[in-house]
Amino acid sequence: MSNDPYILKKNILNIIFLLIPISLTIGPLIAEITFNIFTIIILHEIFKYKKIEIFKEKIFIFFYIFYSITLLSAILYQNSFLIVKFFFYFRLILFLICAKYFFDQKYFNYKYINFLFIFFLIIIIDAIAQIISGTSLLGNSGQYSEGFTFNISGIFFSEEILGSYLSRLLPVISFFSYIKYKNYLANNFNVIFYILCFFIILFTGERVAIIIMLLNILLILAIGKNFRNVTILLLLLPIVLFGSFKYESKIFNRLIDTTYTQIFENNKFNWISEAHSKHLISSYHIFKDNKFLGAGPRSFRIECKKYNHIVKGCSTHPHNNYAQILAETGILGFSIFIFGIYFIYKSFIKYFYYYFKKKRFEYIYLVLPLGALVFQFIPILPTGNFFNNWLSIIYFYTLSLIFFKREKIN
User: Fold this and answer.
1) FRET label pair with 168: which of 58, 159, 177, 367, CA 20 to 30 Å apart?
2) What's the rounded Cα separation, in Å, for the pair 74 and 86?
């Protein structure tokens, strides 16, 4: 607390900004409220001080175009519920603009980062307690303690998204660790957190989360440039992996046996599984009948029923971002989406190269968030619903971090 209104406002904004990844563990509603409060406070300041030129920056124009095309697709689909639901997607773009303003005005304060670290450590300890004893510190026993499943969920209780949360948010934690502790201490911090999280994710049974986590570990090893830490991680990873197999045989069955069975289900090669392959086929048929603007965002669950006579491929979404965007927004929306993905991949490769060639530490602040997005948008991996609020907040929050120290990097 402070008697100075300016300092008080900065403190509040910092706490809210760092509460966003924490609020994702409580539920979509709390996350939305936290996310939107931050946006509203910053928007008020932008208009109060007439800083509206920020809305004209090129990166935001890209999002305006994508949003306009997708909204038009929703309107043409003529489902009022979906139109209203997607209309508020614009709040994500506003958040990105506000995050840039937040960093540009140098409102960000390092002293609050420890709150995020402590909370993340609580999640880790809580999950490890459930692995060892069958019940987490917060009282989540679920089916794991009864032996029906090995999928732990820790702080998320009935929602089995712990692995997804850790694998997607750990690069964000690493980002803040480099801000707080710089290179040497941050590298040591990351070794501990990444090993613990990899161990936990194995017990969640979330295969995509394991792949994303391994890719994040490789990135940390590359940018750490610390031979001792690299050696420790390379030695500990197989120990953790095989130790987990020994401790719980169901992990091996899930990762190896189940995956192999699903890919070669019914004596044919499938993308992930036969069900996943059918989702892709349904997406293709939806796209064929709605080539230009697609069938509308979030419409897959409705449209797929029209093709049940061809393929039984219905679900809430196609489980692949690229198939979903193509089916729901058509060629026009897909072209803009691909351009955005291309920009992320290109920027990641460029700044990763600059980090080693120019030996400038600041490039880490671009490499980490861009790398996190690159790994989450690998085309062959199954995904959640692209327009899902929980995932969207993670995507945009991660992307917002590229504005940190942007002027210095430029």
Assistant:
1) 58
2) 8
